[in-house]
Amino acid sequence: MTHNIYIYIAIMAATSYAIRVLPLTLIRKQIKSKFLRSFLYYVPYVTLAVMTFPAIMDATQSPIAGLAALLVGIVAAWIGAGLFPVSILCCLVVFVLEFFLV
Amino acid sequence: MVSHKQAIKEGIRDGIPIALGYFAVSFSLGVAARNAGLSAFQGFLVSLLNNASAGEYAGFTVIAANAAYFEIFLMTLIANARYLLMSCSLSQKFSPDTPLIHRLLIGYDVTDELFGITIARPGFLDPFYSYGAFMVAIPGWSIGTALGVIAGNALPARIVSALSVALFGMFLAIIIPPSKQNKVVCAFVLISFACSFAAAKLPRISDLSGGTRTIILTVILAGLAAFFFPVEEEQEVRDDA
Are B189 and B179 in contact, with CB atoms under 8 Å apart? Predict the structure, then answer.
């Protein structure tokens, strides 16, 4: 049997939306539990860190360029650069380094 | 208190690097969509309605295999499960009296990147900040996918490679400043890097998808941090300020 692509798309869309919107609509109050509050406080930092490394080394043609972008990005963010400058800087590091590495 | 207009402006500003990164990623996603037999419009539709890289990619593999409808549900659920955690976390960023309509709209586009910039905002979220970011991020993502289906591998690999780290640069700009102020956050960022690296290399564990590894590590590490270093309410306020 051949499946309809639009039904596939509808199922994907409904699933993706439900996952995101249910917590936002069901959790209407500030959570009281200290453990849960702390857990949710740490979630973003842990999850973004986990997703950044080592994935940044797989995203680029040369893993070394990715690693260099990571280090430069950390230093730039540490000394106070904002979202856009850090992003652009990381891109430039990869763009320039890959002239030599690839 | 910034006005909604100002919030939209700031949202657009912070959304631009996201849109650039999205464009590169979704372009390559469009190539995968084409290989799975989708038209440019269908690829555009998938991206417009899902806003999820790993989830969409997983979906394309299911479509390519002409597998059962239940399978695409399950794949989407697993690949996107981390958004459930993010939305739980994000629910605490809403003022308790935020109207339902804003919750329904914000829930439409909770992604790694948009979640990241949203939690980096001080205090309760002004939904209009998110809408500003959506206005640039959503077209970047969905149009990028459509162009990927159409143009295939036309964009030079060097450009795609450079653009693909824009997203990671943003993540760093979000997690590093709090690490500077809070030793526990700093320690757990480093531990997260190390565990994530180990999980990507260890046999068996590395067979799990990236999304699944992210969920497991997040639950374990944030759980440990919360258990051993519970956050005082004043601390949350101070970090937000």
Answer: yes
Contact B168 A45 (CB under 8 A): no
Residue length of chain B? 241
Question: What global pTM score does this model have?
Answer: 0.75
Beta carbons of A51 and B196 less than 8 Å apart? yes
Enumerate residues 28 to 87 of chain A having a beta carbon within 8 A of any beta carbon in chain B: 28-31, 34-56, 59-62, 65-66, 69-70, 73-74, 76-78, 80-87
CB atoms B222 and A92 under 8 Å: no
Could you tell me how far CA B75 lies from the centroid of its own chain?
A: 17
Q: What is the pLDDT of residue B37?
A: 87
- The complex's ipTM works out to 0.86
- How far apart CA B150 and CA B189 sit, in angstroms, is 39
Supply φ then ψ for residue B47, to 5 degrees.
Answer: -70, -40
- Suggest the residue from A37, A46, A58, A61 to mutate for an interface test with chain B (most B CBs closer than 10 A): A46
Chain B: closest CA distance from residue A30 (Å): 6
B144-186 pLDDT, tens digit per residue, is 999 988 986 677 888 878 877 877 887 898 899 999 999 999 9
**Tokens 């205090």 map to which residue?**
B123
Q: Which amino acid is at B149?
A: V
Are B170 and B18 in contact by the 8 Å Cβ rule? The answer is: yes
Measure CA B80 to chain center: 10
Residue B46: HSE in the Cβ half-sphere, 13 Å Cα cutoff: 37
| Record: contact A52-B193, CB cut-off 8 A | yes
Contact B96 A70 (CB under 8 A): no
What are the pLDDT digits (tens) for B42-76?
A: 999 999 999 987 788 878 888 888 888 988 898 78
Q: How many helices (H) and strands (E) does chain B have?
A: 13, 0
